[in-house]
Amino acid sequence: MSRITLFGKAKIIDDEIVIKEENDLSTLYKYLESRGFYNFIKPINIENNRTTYEYKQDIPTTNEVRANDIVEIVSTLHNKTSFNKSVDSETHKNILEKTKGYTKYLRKEYLNKLIELEYITYLKPSEQLFINNYSKIISSLDFIDKEINEWYKLVEKDTTVRVSQIHGNLRLDHLINSDNLYLISWSKTLIESPIKDFLILYRNEWYQCDFKEPLSIYLSNANITESEKKLLFIYMSLPLDYQETEDELENTMNMTKVIEYLYKTEELIRPYYSIK
To answer: Would the pTM count as exceeding 0.70?
Structure first.
């Protein structure tokens, strides 16, 4: 009898093959090969939205090493598949207005919450955390508003943007370290600005490891322009979403994450503004 291990939407059979329910990605894999990119597992068979792959035993590594490997691989992916896409005059302006509109919305939400809490005598731990760090949250929004204006000055007259094939779903457990380094779970791949891949990885895994070296590797290897780097830092600096629940312990943990994310991100990108 076969030994079957379930892993998400995948079935691992006898540590020999993996059967995964997914759309047909054969066209993507052929394209990647044509561009000289091979850090994916080639399918054995594709039939009825079910793909069979050879099973690859993952060799455990630290989260930091795993993040470095992922960043090096996606840098190669972006470099091998990037091209300049024509855009109209409104494209950059839309990014500017959308970003500033979002920070304006957050300012209003945070201010309303602050005013509401000022009338409460005994604050919950999550509420006290928010009040203690309100100025930090606002300063992050100030930074974003300033930087998005600076970014717009850089790109206002550009008629093209650089795009590439991005993985679109980067997580630490979407890398397999075996006879080669393989990225898996390509179901969200698309043509998009390459900085989106690093942003997705960072937003998914910022609390799992130190991103100082992965960021340095990405900026060095991925041919990032000054405007792309500025936009990446802007998006990284946006606060995490916070949804209040009926569980105060959960609220406190979530608010702690919101605050820790702001401090960790500022510490991560600050050197790039102090180096002349």
So the answer is: yes
